[in-house]
Amino acid sequence: MNIYEFKEYVKERKPLSSDEIHQFMNDMSDEARRITFELNTTYRSQDEVRQLLSRLFGYEVPNTLRVFPPFYTDFGKNIKVGENVFINACCHFQDHGGVVIGDNCQIGHNVVFATLNHGIAPEDRYHTYPAPIVLGKNVWVGSNATILQGVTIGDNAIVGAGAVVTKDVETNTIVGGIPAKAIKRI
Question: I need a labelling partner for 24 at 20 to 30 A (CA). Which of 1, 2, 41, 77 fits?
């Protein structure tokens, strides 16, 4: 399996259940950990951070991307970021299912993007199911928020600090709470 085949497979949201897929995910996780350890173990200029993230993500990231390490991911190759994106310290991207961050987004401290979920039935619990997380343009995600698999957050939306987002968020909407609910239209 290669990265292209894997990305095409996860688009179908089928279970990640074969030995081949598990081995590929393990290999990619090892690579991601090597790069994130390099990123997170000493001070890095933003140019150095972008160079390491380009290796981690598998493409040259925009020169307007700003990330304050430490930054964590267990895959790395299924993250796409737009222009003028800021990601604060201690964020965790579980990106197997895909994370897309639109232009001008701001991500607070300790935000978690979780694109995998386990099967519900006990006999299916070992398998994981991918679904992408997509942030539109100008989205602000507050500190300690968690965005779950399959969620799309519309343009200009705000996710309040500590929210757990389990469903799509409409454009121009502020959400908060557990589970996150609409608080206000902008």
Answer: 41
Tell me, what's the pLDDT at 51? 98
Q: What is residue 11's three-state secondary structure?
A: helix
Contact 82/103 with Cβ under 8 angstroms? yes
The helix or strand, by DSSP H or E, that contains position 24, with its residue range, turns out to be helix 19-40
What token pair was written down for 17? 């259940």
Q: Is 109 a catalytic site residue?
A: no
* Total-model pTM: 0.95
104-117 pLDDT tens trace:
999 999 999 999 99
**Rounded Cα gap, residues 77 and 63, in angstroms:** 18
Choosing from 92, 96, 109, 118, which is the catalytic residue?
118
pLDDT per residue as tens digits for the range 42-56: 999 999 999 999 999
Of 17, 101, 41, nearest to 66 (Cα)?
101
Provide mean pLDDT across the span 92-104.
97
Amino acid, single-letter form, for residue 113? F
**Cβ count within 10 A of residue 148:** 19
Sign of the torsion angle spanned by Cα atoms 105, 107, 111, 112: positive
